[in-house]
Amino acid sequence: MSIGKNIAHDSSIGHVTGKSIFIDDRAAIQGELQVGVVGAPVAAGRLKQVNTRRAELIPGVVGIFTAKDLHHNQWGTIIKHQPILVEDKIGYMHEPTVVVAAETREALTKALRVIEIECEEGKPVFTIDEAIAKEDFLYEATPFVQGDVEQALKTADHRLKQSFECGGQEHFYLESQATVAIPLENGQMEIHSSSQHPTETQHVVAHALGLPYHYVTCTVKRMGGGFGGKESQAAPFAAMAAMVAAKFNRPARLILSKDDDMQMTGKRHPFKNFYEVGFTKEGMITALKADLYSDAGAYADLSSSIMERAMFHIDSAYYVENVLITGRCCKTNHHSNTAFRGFGGPQGAITMEALIEDIAKVVGKDPAEVRRLNLYGKDVRNRTPYGQIIDHNPLPEMTDRILSESEYARLRSEVDAFNAKKCGKVRGLALSYTKFGIAFTAKFLNQGNALVNVHLDGTVQASTGATEMGQGVNTKIQQVIAHAFGIPPKDVQLMPTSTDKNHNTSPTAASSGSDINSAAALMACDKIKRRLQILLHKFWNGETFDDVKEIELDFEGDLDHIEFIDEKIIDTKTKKELPFKEAITMAYLNRISLGGYAFFKTENLGFDKKKCEGRAFNYFTNGAAVSMVEIDEYTGEMKVLMTRILMDLGRPLNPGIDRGQVTGAFIQGMGWVTHESLVYSDKGVLLSHSPTTYKIPNIQDTPREFVVDFIENNENKQAVHRSKAVGEPPFLLGGAVFCAIKDAIGYRTANNKISSPATNERILMALSE
Ligand code: MTE
Ligand code: HPA
Ligand code: MOS
């Protein structure tokens, strides 16, 4: 049994010993060129001229390229309108404009510094407010409407009309965007990329070079982190390297420096949400009218889907009967913002969680009580603003459990007593939730395929469309396959993801990499197992099976009593058994296929995009968190004293890996709402473009007391072995830290207002309001 066990991550030893191979660890191939990019020097305007004279004089520089050197220069996951290299109009500061190829990195670095780009400077737009004033939107979503929001607002005991802002976030993956492109015979191209989406990378490279798709293969061994930042944005950089490889018929390597990566690539979307809420004297929400605006940056990228996921998650975990929710993506002169863990969900949910704090202040209740009051019910009050009925809702029990285990009531009186002392420090406490919808909201993406090969020594190699970015998807698929064949996980190897083995794959995203790809792998295993079952059934019955057409066509009926356990195949009725390896040899000698290929699609998704109603998600992954913070009132410095998390992950395939995902996602979410702050100059230069100026959480920032626990939930029949997706959902629990900060501020000021990120500076300013 390898399901539900803490099998070590398949790269754990490699990562800690430094032996894991990332793109730039790949040994140089003879003749390899180094590729770099120069970005635009203005945030808006037109490209006039590129002066390459000084760069050309540098020994070792072999080529300098611009948009006209590409066969096709437009790309984009949803709308193909983003140039790979600036052609004319400049969309944002540092937008890739010139590609340089050199013999060495030294020559490349020198050349990148002396390329001069002349532009006609335009007037940039940097804020959501400016874009709203100009009505410059890249996308307007179909609104979610339910009930009669105007009437409900009119009759509500209380109303609040305000706005909430949250900032962007740098992905801060440790491996920058990176590609090695290797030209093959007849113009074919082999791409090794740090990409969450090998299929899109294949397509973008093919378009850029004018090749049919079957001339391009994209392989991804692993990423040094992706977090959504390599879902779409790995592709254009792969195209730049491929262009150089094609021009010179030499391998080409493009590895962005951390600074270039941070300045050239998109980040989490900042949002500004305007809303009006109606609620009863008790704090029960009766109406929510919300207009969501995101800063999409210069191009569409995935912004429309991200906006929709924000709208899908503005309910957080609460039932609201009357809603009107709109969403618009603002066009600004920022880097094109993109997928980031939670994919808009956090920006929606935190708006609601912050709002609950405000409602509690109005009605004079503990926010946890207001949360409990508004929480989705089990059989009543269980319809989302988009008409999906929530079944198997564990949040009510989870609330009871986390409030009791965290001793919330005791903590609250301690916080009250501590704050009454006025010792220069103020504490805050909050409960918050995650109820994250699992499925790509673009229905067609909920598909995958897998290839499983059993070798003659009984070991297995498997390939799927899932890409490994640290989240452990390979290990989970390995466990599912090992379990299916009854063999040890060490006998199963997940192979690099490659478009020549798995075609038309979806990005590894939406937390559904494991759900989709392990389901496909399991189906492929079942096909091989069925052949082996028939073979042994016939063998044990003394029947011959020489030269049957296709063995699976040769027998009908149930053979489930022939099981795969402990490296043996056992007929549980007759007690006959054969070692797995011997059965494999027998199958081979009898010319029976030991390879399996399968296609999987998620069933029962039915969201009507026109009506904005229906089953958008396969199921929800739920969680709750309680956090306590302490703020130094003289400096604004904030520490998280305690966090307790309770997650519903169904029956985890690998509880250890899932614990890592919960911990990491929470800390990343906490970073987003606290210290991570993107700062730009008035010209649009990202000033926080390196580890010295952009503060991600470190070990000092983790909660002093940090407990992560799971509930037992055996009900989720929607995913493999009743597991649940884990990658993004706990990110939203970072909201508990934000709400605890708001709570603390509320002890000292009449107002508890603060926007996200609640940096130390902002906290200090809020306290002096
Ligand atoms: N965990 C690690 N270590 N590194 C990552 O880049 N990405 C997150 C999450 N966990 C990420 C991670 C994101 S954004 C997603 S969508 C999921 O992993 C993707 O993987 P899965 O679908 O296999 O869970
Ligand atoms: N989540 C994450 N990534 C995506 C999605 C989604 O819903 N749709 C397209 N890419
Ligand atoms: Mo994750 S943002 O869906 O790559």
Q: How many domains, in number, for the residues?
A: 3
* Assigned CATH architecture of the largest domain: 2-Layer Sandwich
Please identify the structural class as seen in this structure: alpha+beta
Q: What integer value in Å does the Rg equal?
A: 27 Å
Number of strands: 32
* Main sheet characteristics: 8 strands, mixed
Which molecules other than protein and nucleic acid are bound?
Answer: ligand MTE, hypoxanthine, dioxothiomolybdenum(VI) ion
Query: Approximately how much beta-strand content do the residues carry?
Result: 25-35%
Q: Strand order of the main beta sheet, please?
A: 3-7-1-15-12-13-14-23
CATH homologous group name of the largest domain: Aldehyde oxidase/xanthine dehydrogenase, molybdopterin binding domain
Q: What would the CATH topology of the largest domain be?
A: Aldehyde Oxidoreductase, domain 4
Number of helices: 19
The N- and C-terminal alpha carbons lie at a distance of: 59 Å
**Helical content, roughly?**
25-40%
Low-confidence stretches: none
**What is the approximate shape?**
globular
Mean pLDDT: 97
